[in-house]
Amino acid sequence: MRDIQIGDFRETVVERGDYPPEKLREILGPETVAVLGYGVQGRGQSLNMRDNGVNVVVGLRRESPGWSLAEGDGWVPGKTLVSLEEAAERGSIVLYLLSDAGQKEFWPKLRPLLTPGKALMFAHGFSIVFQDQTGVVPPEGIDVVMVAPKGSGTTLRRMFVEGQGINASFAVLHDATGRARERTLAVGVAIGSVFMYETTFDREVVADLVGERGVLMGAIYGLWLAQYEVLRAHGHTPSEAFNETVEEATQSLYPLIAEKGMEWMYANCSTTAQRGALDWFTAFRDAVKPVVEKLYGSVASGEEARRALEANGRPGYRQELERELAAIADSEMWRAGRVVRGLRPGAGNE
Predict the structure, then answer these.
(1) Rounded distance, CA 248 to CA 36, Å?
(2) Which of 121, 100, 96, 99 lies closest to 110 in space, CA to CA?
(3) CB under 8 Å, gap of 24 or more: what pairs does 148-153 form?
(4) CB 198 within 8 A of CB 12
């Protein structure tokens, strides 16, 4: 474990090296980890744990599209690939990785299967924090914990295979067994976390929902789209507008930020670019900050949770979502993106 100091704030982070293979075997060897759901997180986490020697069973609905995907990944029907109910019965640690709406729907069936001594683990604080909307109130006598990877399950798996990892946060809400913390941290390392920092369910869910709707996904796409549309409206070609908006950001500048920070990226750009960025970033901050404040309030009040549950539980929502995503894919900006990506060395044709 390592203490880190940022200004006046000091905290301890848990590193992968704190839980070497022999320690993982000691803690998780007696356990069966049931992963409920095989979406991007369920798939990535279960495969990483299996590769780390953990006894994993995957629970799915037989009619789920993920069933055939799981079979293709080597999970064996009737043995390591079973129904949600059977997996929950068999698991001493139950990773509840269904969608937020799916967790609400399945909870009445799962709750009776959470017998004393088990651990109920989440990858997100949503169902617990907004339990007035989800109904997810765990029974007494079980550990209630969370490991939340700071990235998609696809990235989690890809980096694990490459021998790397991504960061995660963790939280212990209830420690009924006296082993909740060590179970949580061992699973966190087994799923591929390179280091973990402690949080609470409340802090995680608010920060996560703000981040997803903000700079991680919603805001960044909105900003890209605004710039692309302005460039196109002033006569710039689709490829020029895309390159100056997205391609240069993701392929050149953002990797420099990831490497050493914003000042490093600025230091490796032209002096004209530096001056322009330094002159304009405050204008963007001042314009966007009220929107982020409004977003934070909507998340903290539970309004975003209500909207998400309402939409995701609506009949036909999957088809509606596919239409929305298809409209983005078919927009000129992302048609330009497919062409530009296809020009990268070794990319071939998309």
Answers:
(1) 39
(2) 96
(3) 148/122, 148/123, 148/124, 148/199, 148/204, 148/208, 149/41, 149/45, 149/123, 149/191, 149/192, 149/193, 152/40, 152/41, 152/44, 153/39, 153/40, 153/41, 153/42, 153/43, 153/44, 153/45
(4) yes
DSSP string over 128-149? HHTHHHH---PPTTSEEEEEEE
Domain ranges of the chain: 2-200, 214-342
Dump pLDDT digits (tens) for 284-306. 999 999 999 999 999 999 999 99
pLDDT (0 to 100) of residue 273: 93
- Judge whether residue 4 has pLDDT over 90: no
Task: Please state the three-class secondary structure of 215-266 as a single string.
Answer: CCCHHHHHHHHHHHHHHHHCCCCHHHHHHHHHHHHHHHHHHHHHHHCHHHHH
- Write down the CATH superfamily of domain 2-200: NAD(P)-binding Rossmann-like Domain (3.40.50.720)
pTM of the model: 0.89
Distances (CA, A) of 228 to 71, 212, 245, 275, 277: 42, 21, 6, 22, 18
Q: Per-residue confidence at 348, pLDDT binned at 50, 70, 90? A: low
Catalytic residue numbers, as ranges: 124
What are the tokens at 68? 């055939």
| Amino acid 349: pLDDT | 55
What residues contact 144, with CB distance under 8 A and at least 6 apart? Answer: 119, 120, 128, 138, 172, 173, 174, 180
